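Known limitations

Structure tokens in this collection are predictions and should be treated as such. Users comparing against experimental data should check residue numbering before alignment. To illustrate the layout, the record for Probable membrane transporter protein is reproduced below. The input appears on top and the generated tokens appear beneath it.
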Amino acid sequence: MRTLVLLAIVGLAAQLVDGSLGMAYGVTSTTLLLAIGTNPAAASATVHLAEIGTTLASGVSHWKFGNVDWKVVAKIGIPGAVGAFLGATVLSSLSTEVAAPVMALILLALGLYVFIRFTTFGLPTGRLGKPLRKRFLGPLGLVAGFVDATGGGGWGPVGTPAILASGRLEPRKTIGSIDTSEFLIAVAASLGFLVGLGSEGINYSWAAALLIGGVIAAPIAAWLVRHIPPRVLGSAVGGLIILTNTRSLIRSDWIDQADNPIRFLVYGVIVAAWIAAVAYSLNEHRKAPYDIHNDPQKAREVVKAEVQTDPV
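Generated tokens:
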């Protein structure tokens, strides 16, 4: 019973982060299951089974708060489901020892871009509103879905920074669309695991506990992402991406510094820079509450009203 309560709390916390920042539910939950001795395939299968419910609840919540671009959901979600099914069926024979650090480097580069761009300039508005093309979202979804199924998480860490870096979709809709489309990935991955594993190794009570915690957190996270300023949210997301993927690189075979105390100094520097960046972004938002980088829609409304009242 104690384990189930702990898993429910983990599910709640993981969904709160995932629904607010567009990533981390699968990574957080899978990490816990692996830590208590679950094999990778069963851990990923259990988490994806829970995600069918959490992503559905999250998607409905984001939709009600106006955080979803349905065209993006369709363009990235369908190829993502294909990738997730393939990833789930080959997980038992796939080695990610080489792929993981390569992906971490790519994500780290994207995270640095998002972190610097949002902290320094706010929301990228030059291309905001321009449609995201299928030729970009299709391959992105395929890769993200495959990584998500084979790694127990990765849909958000791959998809969210790539779309944010494009500058074409504001952060809250990026996060809402990624979270909503993840329902398709969870269903496809679960089907893939059923084909590859059957029902062996999947702990349904653990999946239910993760699900309950996630469903409770989903509407709270959807409300949060709508009210957090895009500039602050971008800095927060960028910092999370940098920290997560730096840790992956340090623990990879490329560097293998998992037991080196210096890694804590590296983490400390990143966290300090992350906190400073979020504080700076929040301060800039307060100084210019209607700046187009912080709230482009409100800025356009204010400018339009000023022009109508004072045409000169």
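For this record: The two ends are 70 Å apart (CA to CA). The first helix runs from residue 2 to 21. Please report discrepancies through the issue tracker.
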